[in-house]
Request: fold
Amino acid sequence: MPVNASNGSFSAESRLYRLDGEGAMSSLQVEGWVAREGLSTLGEIRVVALAQDAALDLNDMVSRPATLWTTRADGSEAGRSGVVRAAELLGGNAGMARYRVTLAPWLWLATQRRDSRIYENQTVLDIVRHVLDGYEGYIYKISADVETHLADLPARTYTTQYRETDYAFLSRLLAEAGLGWTTVEDDGAPARHAVLIFADSRGLDEDAESAGAGVRFQRAHASESRDGVQALARRQRRAVERVTVLAWHESGKHAIAGQALAGPASGSEDESAGLEWFEPLGHGGLLNQAHAQFQATLLMQAAQASAETFIGRGNVRTFRSGTRFTLREMSPLGPSGEAGFEPVFALDRVEHVGVNNLSGQNDASLADRLGALDDFLCFEDEDPSATGFEAGATDDFHLEYGLGHEGARDRGDAEIGVGRPEAAVLARAHDVGYANRFRAVRCDRPWRALPPAARGARLAGAASAVGVHTAIVTNAEGAIEASGEDEIYRNARGDVRVRFHWQSDGEGLAKSRWARVAQRQAGAGMGMSFVPRIGQEVLVRFLDEDIDQPLIVGALYNGRGEGGIPATPGGRAGEPMNTEVYAAATDGKPSAQANLASGNAPAWHGAAGGDDQHRNAAALSGFKSKEFGGDGYNQIVFDDSDGQLRMQIKSSQSASELNLGHLIHQSGNYRGNVRGVGAELRTDAFGAVRGGSGVLLTTYSSGGSEPAGDAAAPLALAGQADIMAQSFDGVIGAHQGVRLASARGTAAAGASR
Reply:
């Protein structure tokens, strides 16, 4: 029988499934579908549909909200909504076309937006709201238990999103805070669903089929009036008995530790022999002792949640991750045989397969004309929710052993959501129209997401801050230009505020942040002191590769000085170099010291080595400071010019300086005319030479082996001069002349002043 409109193939009446969408999607009739979903995981619904038009506008379908409606056993409908992120034309033949549309939660849009921004002194919820509020028109909800869960946590000092998608950033932030998310239907939302952020999985909504009487553990048969679970396996894994986290508190200069045990402490010696997970979090990884205990508890809860899971198969059409159900009439061989165990479970992962109830003749005709349906009931090759989670963090989703009415004892190897649906689930869906497999956790303990794998000392994986970065030093408001004399802005520890080149601006975002400054030497009352000034470009590394722990390790020149090489972006020819500015320098006047482009050019350079220029072949090195708000400076210069070695210690205040070696005039980068060889100490203001035990000024040279204060030779000469003066004075006296005061004394005989 051919498939056409006249035989009712495109009527949604009496169908198990229908697709509710606008525009071109209104022409589609569901043939079959597969879906995968999980707590804190982006799921997908892939609907294979038929149409009598092979020219439907695929672009019109993309980004529209749509709902896949499923008819339940009692005749009511249950919806699964999402945003169309992909639409495909799979083929067409003889007036019939096959399409496939892929629905995803609206949070999938966050995987398509990447940003770099810094939050300062904001709580986890503040940051989450700021990110999600950027998706205008889409709804998210925060469960009432979240505020209680985070009540004792202080605001995060800094939280950095660096070259991460919004989804990856939110995933690690929520996991680190012990929060999860799921999707819930919301008829009033533009996307027909909302994202729900929760803290305690025990407070999730109950599944619609389970509400009231629970879900039966039963066979899958047409005589059963309700959907149920047909197979359930319990998986128990060895887990850690102790979790310890440790971090260094920089401000308090002490370690912070937190510890959580798998069970109540008994005080026995055997407790120390158990498996321990020790997590060092480096510098600043924990805010205080309460935060340390909070993180240790979360890690232990995540370990316990993944240590015991329940794997099952069933045909409950309302099952979806983020809901809980009560299992009734379960075999005593299962977990209900445990004393005190209440069979209430929270659905962690669910994989669905649905096949619409077209007639067998229609199925055969479609297979002949468009290919087998099973060839198109598959998942994408890559998991769209991939966020860098550690391999193995998600358990294999298969039945390792089974307890069921059909004696199932499968050992499938397929992971949830990878490739094609499990063969047994697909076959069951063809038989009865719908089948699923699921993973659940006990509802008497909270579910926690395993944090993404981290590099360095991180609890949850952030984008790696590998290598060095550059940043600009700013003032308190984030400005990169100093105001008057206020060229330095730092805190009591000597940290300065910096702005990275990759930072985004916007309301609620930090324009700059504090960063520690490394010194070449540091000790108790000793060492070097380097304080970057506002506007300087600095070189930054990150402690433990933690993007939230920057450390300034140096500074960079980044300007273009007068006469510098012009930029040639994209290979375009630049303006010719202007070397005439170098010739304007004189012994008392520098030249070519300004910046033609924003930034900071070096004080000394080798761009003008010619005799008609600055005569400096990059021979000058040293240190030069600058007056706050002025042009004054202090400098130490080492001149390594061939045969003209020179050193200068100078302050521009009253031109006070000490010159040693080859004496020349120096004006900025200009090496001027020769003034001599030797040493010079000069100032335009007052000068003084003082020695508490004496001062020696002599024109006599001394050997290198003699002591620095040895004056034997000058004293001998002075003694000889005195004897000669006495002799002359005697001769003068014999001839009755004017006696020599230098020999007889100026005040009295033998006394002079």
Q: What stands out?
A: Confidence is low (pLDDT under 50) at residues 383-417. The radius of gyration is 41 Å. Residues 712-734 form the longest helix (23 residues). The first strand starts at residue 17 and ends at 21.
